[in-house]
Write a structure and sequence with these properties.
The chain is of the alpha/beta class. The protein has two domains: about 30-265 and about 480-495, Glycogen Phosphorylase B (Rossmann fold, 3-Layer(aba) Sandwich); about 270-480, Glycogen Phosphorylase B (Rossmann fold, 3-Layer(aba) Sandwich). The protein is about 40% helix and about 20% strand. The chain is built from 16 helices and 17 strands. It has helices at about 60-65, 110-130, 140-155, 175-185, 200-205, 210-215, 230-240, 270-280, 285-295, 310-325, 345-365, 385-390, 405-415, 445-460, 460-480, 480-495, and strands at about 5, 20-25, 45-50, 75-85, 95, 100-110, 165-170, 190-195, 220-225, 250-255, 255-265, 295-305, 330-340, 375, 395-400, 425, 440. The strands form three sheets. The chain has a nine-stranded mixed beta sheet, sandwiched between helices. A six-stranded parallel beta sheet has the order 14-13-12-15-16-17, sandwiched between helices. It has a two-stranded antiparallel ribbon with strand order 1-2. A hairpin with a 5-residue loop joins strand 5 (about 95) and strand 6. Helix 2 (about 110-130) packs across helix 3, helix 10 runs parallel beside helix 11 (about 345-365) and helix 10 (about 310-325) crosses helix 14. The two termini are about 25 Å apart.
Length: about 500
């Protein structure tokens, strides 16, 4: 029986647990998630950070939200506690949640954190995988600390594993953990999913440890990436680094193990988020925002404060909008939420200073005594308030220079009022652009093109906005977080 996916229903018409109109997709599953069934094997999620109990709801990050469907009763989530200690933990601290999910964490020593996280993971891998080789900082002690922390994760997880567990490792911080588990004798099925983009060999080979990383990842049974382009680039690196020629199916053999490389784009629970946005429209924060606009249209950007998001170019594009299309002066406000992150890394500190200057320049040139065109804030906004902000925004501005997927784009679409929807302006270099083709797709490097797209969205007819939103909403209801989890885990359960 085909899996059934929600369409043709307004969020307000669907109550939790109700049966909306449906259509069939090509994913052959039905009923409750098969990983929750008896005998299917416990799912063990491994990530750099384990979400605290307080993060399971309104303030949960993208990873926690996307994996909520895999953290069913009986599952385990393992990773770093977020605490820095004198020594990296040898054993995990275990907490059982009320929902029956086990959370197991270890602390990381301050010296290991600085080299593993700030040094190699975010000083070398992050810029490299976002095609910013000029920002890459590599030194051997950082890489050795990265390997050591991955080894510590593996050793602490080992005594917690059962023979039939499915181990699902996430993201660039833990690229060598699968190999460390194999070195400890673990024969469980191991999967790895990369949430960020991948790069061709000409980029990856800039990193001195590139071949070692590809070999370490090849200790996993399944490697998942967001887009087919990312999967193709990973397979090119397999050939370059290992001298192995993958099959057309994306499978390849390495050291006696068959590895499957799959494309499993991440998603959201679109219907749930749509209901949240509809409720949040009347929340105090949303009402305050609406009143502060004084009837003006809202252009909204929501990002982490990160150089991969293209924020300086986005600010420039908004300034060019006001210069080239003066009819939008005094009738449009741009709110950029850019929550601070990785504040100990120098490139992030420089970025914040640049944005402060650009915001001042734009406001200084275009502001009036009763209108400030650009609002820029660097503290986080909780998920409930964001849902209301999305719903109020006439333009969702999502223009990263490079992004694995970008769930903000999908949340913006889900949050819109279908009777009077806003318009998504989306970078062609976000993974979401592969799916969300009815958005206004732009090259984020061309500030004039982005400005023209914002203008197009602001003057677009209601009929066209509805047509674009209807197509986009169907897509975000199809490629859901639930489907992401089920598809990847189906690959992981399937033995060659």
């Amino acid at each position: 029986m085909d899996r059934m996916v929600l369409v043709n229903a307004r969020p307000s018409d669907i109550k939790d647990g109700a049966q909306p109109k449906l259509f069939s997709s090509s994913v052959p599953v039905a009923g409750p998630p098969s990983w929750a069934e008896a005998g299917a094997g416990r799912v063990v999620i491994v990530s750099n950070r384990v979400p605290a109990s307080s993060e399971q709801g309104a303030t949960a990050g993208g990873l926690a939200v996307a994996l909520a469907d895999a953290t069913t009763k009986g599952a385990m989530w393992f990773g770093w506690s977020g605490y820095r200690a004198e020594e990296t933990s040898a054993e995990a601290n275990i907490v059982l949640s009320e929902a029956g999910v086990t959370y197991a964490t270890i602390d990381i020593a301050e010296r290991d954190y600085q080299r593993f996280y700030n040094g190699f993971a975010n000083g070398a891998l992050w810029p490299l995988l976002h095609s910013r080789t000029g920002l890459l900082r590599f030194n051997r002690p950082d890489y050795e600390a990265y390997r050591a922390v991955n080894r510590a994760f593996a050793r602490a997880l080992l005594p917690l594993l059962r023979p039939d567990d499915l181990v699902w490792i996430h993201d660039y911080q833990l690229m060598t953990m699968g190999e460390e588990l194999r070195a400890l004798g673990v024969e469980n099925r191991i999967g790895f999913f990369l949430h960020v983009p991948f790069v061709p060999p000409s980029f990856l080979q800039v990193l001195p440890s590139a071949d070692e990383l590809i070999a370490a990842l090849s200790a996993c049974d399944v490697i998942g990436l967001q887009t087919s382009a990312d999967a193709d680039m990973f397979l090119q690196n397999v050939t370059e680094s290992l001298g192995v020629h993958p099959q057309r199916s994306g499978r390849y053999a390495y050291h006696g193990r068959e590895v499957a490389v799959v494309t499993t784009p991440i998603g959201i629970d679109a219907m749930k988020f749509a209901r949240l946005a509809e409720r949040a429209e009347l929340a105090p924060e949303t009402v305050r925002l609406h009143e502060s606009l004084g009837g003006r249209k809202l252009v909204l950007g929501v990002d982490r404060l990160d150089y991969s998001k293209g924020l300086p170019l986005r600010f420039d594009a908004f300034g060019r909008l006001l210069y080239a299309y003066p009819q939008h002066r005094r009738v449009v406000n741009y709110l950029q939420i850019a929550a601070r992150s990785r504040q100990e890394v120098g490139s992030y500190q420089s970025l914040r200073r640049e944005l402060d200057r650009l915001a001042g320049d734009i406001n200084g040139e275009f502001s009036d005594f009763d209108w400030v065109p650009l609002r820029y804030m660097t503290h986080p906004v909780n998920r409930n308030a964001l849902a209301g902000f999305y719903r109020r925004a006439h333009i969702g501005l999502v223009t990263p220079l490079r992004d694995g997927m970008n769930l903000v784009a999908k949340e913006y679409i889900a949050a819109q009022d279908p009777e009077d929807p806003g318009v998504l302006v989306l970078s062609r270099f976000a993974g979401a652009a592969d799916e969300l083709t009815e958005a206004l797709i732009v090259n984020p490097v061309d500030a004039d093109e982005v400005a023209a797209a914002i203008h197009q969205g602001l003057v677009m007819s209601l009929e066209e906005r509805r047509a674009r939103h209807d197509a986009l909403f169907r897509k975000v209801c199809h490629t859901t977080a639930w489907r992401f989890c089920e598809t990847f885990l189906a690959h992981l359960r399937a033995r060659p």
